[in-house]
């Protein structure tokens, strides 16, 4: 089997199963007759830019097409619905609450978008502070985030 065929199968398994660990992925690949070492699997996952993201039911891997162009990071649309808890606003600020460990990947996705309404983010474990340029920018950004989170 070629590297491309193996990587295609890895993507297919991750797209069709909730996979939370490399060992779990190795077992699922084994069920398909594919025996790979942990080091080969790690290299393939890095090459495919497969990201491990937290979800309300635990961490899981997400496929490369759910990541932003060439950066290997999950897009906002891919992770916000899974990690979002609630949102509140005041002045030019938005406070987003997430599941535990959800704030960092969401803040990174927001920052990587380059939205002109957003000056920047500060993220903790489960809270993100989004600083907007104005109250109208805050309203547009909050409306967009809520729309994405509810998908």
What is this structure's SSE topology?
Layout: H1 3-16, H2 22-31, H3 38-48, E1 51-55, E2 58-62, H4 76-83, E3 84-90, E4 93-98, H5 103-113, E5 118-123, E6 127-132, H6 135-149
Helix pairs in contact: 4-5
Overall pLDDT confidence: 87
Helix fraction by DSSP (H/I, runs of at least 4): 40-55%
Oligomer: single chain
Residue share in β-strands: 15-25%
Query: Which term fits the overall shape?
Result: elongated
> What's the Cα radius of gyration?
18 Å
Structural class: alpha+beta
Question: In total, how many domains does the architecture comprise?
Answer: 2
The helix tally amounts to: 6
Strand order of the largest sheet: 3-4-6-5
Beta strand count: 6
What's the main sheet like? 4 strands, antiparallel
The first-level CATH class name of the largest domain: Alpha Beta
CATH architecture of the largest domain: 2-Layer Sandwich
Low-confidence stretches: 64-71
CATH overall fold name of the largest domain:
Gyrase A, domain 2
Write the element-wise H/E pattern from the N-terminal end onward.
Answer: HHHEEHEEHEEH
Q: Span between N and C termini?
A: 38 Å
Q: How would you describe this protein?
A:
With 151 residues, this protein is of the alpha+beta class. The chain has 2 domains: 3-66, Orthogonal Bundle (Arc Repressor Mutant, subunit A), CATH 1.10.10.10; 76-149, Gyrase A, domain 2. 46% of the residues lie in helices and 23% in strands. It is built from 6 helices and 6 strands; from the N terminus they run αααββαββαββα. It has helices at 3-16, 22-31, 38-48, 76-83, 103-113, 135-149; strands at residues 51-55, 58-62, 84-90, 93-98, 118-123, 127-132. The strands form 2 sheets. The protein has a 4-stranded antiparallel sheet. The longest helix is centred in the last third of the chain and has 15 residues, at 135-149. It is elongated. Mean pLDDT is 87; it is low at 64-71.
């Amino acid at each position: 089997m070629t590297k491309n065929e193996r990587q295609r199968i890895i993507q297919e398994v991750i797209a069709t199963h909730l996979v939370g660990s490399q060992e779990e992925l190795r077992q699922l690949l084994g069920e398909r007759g594919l025996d790979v070492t942990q080091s080969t699997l790690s290299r393939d996952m890095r090459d495919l830019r497969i990201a491990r993201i937290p979800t309300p039911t635990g961490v899981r891997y997400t496929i490369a097409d759910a990541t932003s162009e060439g950066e290997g990071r999950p897009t906002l649309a891919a992770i916000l619905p899974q990690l979002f808890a609630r949102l509140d606003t005041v002045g030019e600020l938005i406070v987003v609450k997430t599941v535990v460990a959800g704030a960092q990947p969401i803040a990174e996705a927001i920052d990587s978008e380059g939205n002109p309404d957003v000056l920047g983010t500060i993220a903790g474990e489960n809270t993100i502070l989004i600083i907007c340029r104005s109250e109208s920018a805050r309203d547009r950004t909050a409306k967009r985030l809520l729309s994405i989170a509810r998908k």
